[in-house]
Q: What sequence folds into this?
């Protein structure tokens, strides 16, 4: 029996099944290694008790995150987002480099912390990916290459002075043991610590059909209601939020450790009420979502089949995890897409999991001259279209496949 990973309830409702897929970031180094590739069921459930949407499985986090090829600094969209975050947070809370310590959880290659480090703040990152942590240290960002858990949090507090700001951007979805993780955050906080957490808002998963963001690394998909339930258990309270465009529509919450009730901002109250009005989890809305997902698969297969019949050369840009979910769900592989291009040197020369599409350096786009380029990381489509606009010279078009087929 499947139980909720947060509240342990067995009152779960299945929303969606995306079949069996490999781990979305398990890029294959050599083609002959595909004979060892494993696939796992990918299903989405809704807990009726705590309202947390989740993709339950028992794959070890070590298998997913220790050898992790994702680097945040590769995307100029993300780098700009980090600079904006720095400017906003300094203005909002008046942090001072002479007295305030900044800690980031899942700091990756240190891209966000760089904004603080170059302004002389004391910065510490906690990052389990060995590759990313190594790059961060090269950039002089003090990084602990371990998973955050309660014992580490306790040792951390003993060694380090008071933490003024804890940043946890796009990590809360990735943590299997959510109770241990939030408990660890609570240990790191004192009553004055500001905790900021960014996550894709589950409203967009349903309204914009962002089902390609469902993969085994993303254990949870948060609404404001569910994130409040999770934090409250460990005396963490949300007092404000920002709505963000990043990752197709995200929310940044601001929280503090306090057993007493904190005053909520007008912004926060407004968004909580908006979310309630949507009635996201009604049977009608859940059925509509499931039907729409199946429809996008049908439309995509038909559209790409027509292009292949006309002998068009089709490539993809972005060896992104979300792209792997989408390709594997739609059963699109190397027979339809010739190559995938990606700016991340750690991925180049490898193959996309499941679909067996080879990943190349984008410098080879000019040589191969595709007729169509499918943008898999649709959340940075403006950056990609702008960077590779030269493909228009030979009539190449960009394609976005979700939520509906669109050409650029």
A:
């Amino acid at each position: 029996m499947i139980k909720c990973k947060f509240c342990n309830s067995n009152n779960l409702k299945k929303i969606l099944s995306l079949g069996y897929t490999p781990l979305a970031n398990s890029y294959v180094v050599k083609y002959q290694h595909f004979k060892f590739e494993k696939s796992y069921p990918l299903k989405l459930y809704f807990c009726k008790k705590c309202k947390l949407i989740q993709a339950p499985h028992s794959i070890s986090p070590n298998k997913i995150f220790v050898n992790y090829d994702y680097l945040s600094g590769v995307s100029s969209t993300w780098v700009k987002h980090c600079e904006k975050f720095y400017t906003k947070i300094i203005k909002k809370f008046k942090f001072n480099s002479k007295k305030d310590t900044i800690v980031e959880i899942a700091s990756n290659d240190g891209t966000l912390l760089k904004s603080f480090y170059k302004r002389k703040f004391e910065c510490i990152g906690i990052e389990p990916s060995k590759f990313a942590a190594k790059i961060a240290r090269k950039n002089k960002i003090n990084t602990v290459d371990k998973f955050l858990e309660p014992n580490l949090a306790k040792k951390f507090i003993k060694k380090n002075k008071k933490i003024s700001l804890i940043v946890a951007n796009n990590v809360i979805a990735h943590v299997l043991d959510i109770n241990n993780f939030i408990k660890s955050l609570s240990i790191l906080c004192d009553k004055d610590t500001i905790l900021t957490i960014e996550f894709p808002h589950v409203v967009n998963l349903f309204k914009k059909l962002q089902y390609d963001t469902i993969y085994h690394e993303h254990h949870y998909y948060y609404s404001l209601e569910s994130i409040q339930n999770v934090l409250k258990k460990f005396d963490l309270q949300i007092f404000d939020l920002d709505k963000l465009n990043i990752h197709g529509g995200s929310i940044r919450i601001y929280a503090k450790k306090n057993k007493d009730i904190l005053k909520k901002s007008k912004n926060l109250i407004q968004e909580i009420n908006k979310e309630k009005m949507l009635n996201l989890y009604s049977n009608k809305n859940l059925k509509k979502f499931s039907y729409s997902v199946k429809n996008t698969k049908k439309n995509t297969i038909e559209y790409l089949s027509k292009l292949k019949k006309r002998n068009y050369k089709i490539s993809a840009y972005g060896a992104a995890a979300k792209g792997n979910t989408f390709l594997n769900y739609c059963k699109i592989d190397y027979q339809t897409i010739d190559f995938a291009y990606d700016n991340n040197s750690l991925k180049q020369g490898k193959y996309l999991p499941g679909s067996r599409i080879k990943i190349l350096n984008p410098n080879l786009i000019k040589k191969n001259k595709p007729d169509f380029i499918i943008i898999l990381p649709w959340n940075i489509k403006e950056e990609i279209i702008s960077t590779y606009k030269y493909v228009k010279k030979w009539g190449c078009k960009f394609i976005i496949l979700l939520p509906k087929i669109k050409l650029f």
